[in-house]
């Protein structure tokens, strides 16, 4: 498995945000993307997901050598791309269990009946140490920061993606909640999968140790290194000159 982002340029409302971004991610690898606010990190997530508000003006996104940059979001998900957004939407009236059942079936060739889905869900919830009654809550409605992030990780567990891209999955969490999220991510990571974590916190990268750290500045990768780059950034900030 390989995700290749090649010379990606993207705009929103005609405004260029991504300006020639290159990144290659292979199975078994964990990549961290750091960088100042407004650099385009969440834009990269939206563009990879296929969000209709963003336009790719140059470059491509290849998943196993297939160009996915014009595919619909559902088609990308079916190919094994999972994206968690920085601010997941709240959808009162839709229970978490119903939502999770829908998204799970949307990436499967054969849909799972409720009788088959519920045991699968409970297995994943147990793995992630999430209490079973949590599934009856309305999607993200009144969820604490930690609960929203755990709901995203539960989605990832069910969809079992080849590549997961998590945008600030650690932000707004207290130390214990951050540790739980990190443990869950480590549980789900396998040599067949790749993970891209967008984060501001080197402390989080102590818990989910990346193989590569990239700094995104002004729409492109300005520097790449190993996990020690995160330490260096914490001390020096993003001024790389
Ligand atoms: P980051 O996640 O790195 O903090 P973003 O990708 O969210 O950065 O934002 C990158 C830039 O895109 C910012 O300058 C932001 O103001 C701009 N931007 C994001 N969304 C919109 C939008 N809907 N319309 C215009 N500009 C936007
Ligand atoms: Mg962001």
Oligomeric state of the chains in view? single chain
Query: What is the residue-mean pLDDT, rounded to a whole number?
Result: 95
Shape: globular
What's the CATH architecture? 3-Layer(aba) Sandwich
How far is the N terminus from the C terminus?
35 Å
- Total helix count? 8
The H/E string reads: EEEHEEHEEHHEHEHEHEEH
Cofactors, ions, other ligands:
adenosine-5'-diphosphate, magnesium ion
Task: Indicate the low-confidence ranges by residue numbers.
Answer: none
Widest β-sheet, arrangement of strands:
6-9-10-3-11-12
Query: What is the name of the CATH class?
Result: Alpha Beta
As a whole number of angstroms, the C-alpha radius of gyration is: 18 Å
- β content, as a range? 25-35%
Structural domain tally: 1
Helical percentage: 25-40%
- CATH fold assignment: Rossmann fold
- Give a count of the beta strands, DSSP E runs of length 2 or more: 12
CATH homologous superfamily identity: P-loop containing nucleotide triphosphate hydrolases
Q: Main sheet, how many strands, which sense, barrel?
A: 6 strands, mixed
């Amino acid at each position: 498995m390989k995700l290749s982002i090649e010379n990606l340029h993207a705009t929103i409302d005609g405004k260029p945000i991504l300006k020639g971004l290159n990144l290659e991610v292979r199975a078994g690898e964990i990549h961290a993307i750091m960088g100042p606010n407004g650099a385009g990190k969440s834009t990269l997530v939206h563009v990879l997901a296929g969000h209709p508000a963003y336009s790719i003006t140059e470059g491509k996104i290849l998943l196993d050598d297939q160009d996915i940059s014009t595919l619909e979001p559902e088609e990308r998900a079916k190919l094994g791309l999972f994206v968690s957004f920085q601010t997941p939407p709240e959808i009162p009236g839709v229970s978490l269990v119903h939502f999770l059942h829908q998204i799970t079936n949307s990436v499967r060739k054969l849909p799972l009946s409720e009788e088959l889905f519920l045991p699968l869900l409970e297995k994943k919830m147990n793995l992630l140490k999430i209490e079973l009654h949590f599934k009856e809550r309305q999607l993200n409605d009144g969820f604490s920061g930690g609960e929203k992030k755990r709901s995203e990780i539960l989605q990832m567990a069910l969809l079992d993606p080849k590549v997961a891209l998590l945008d600030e999955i650690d932000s707004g969490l207290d130390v214990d909640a951050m540790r739980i999220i990190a443990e869950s991510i480590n549980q789900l990571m396998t040599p067949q999968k790749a993970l891209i974590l967008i984060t501001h916190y080197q402390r989080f990268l102590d818990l989910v140790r990346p193989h590569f750290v990239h700094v995104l500045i002004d729409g492109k990768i300005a520097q790449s290194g190993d996990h020690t780059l995160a330490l260096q950034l914490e001390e020096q900030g993003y001024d790389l000159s």
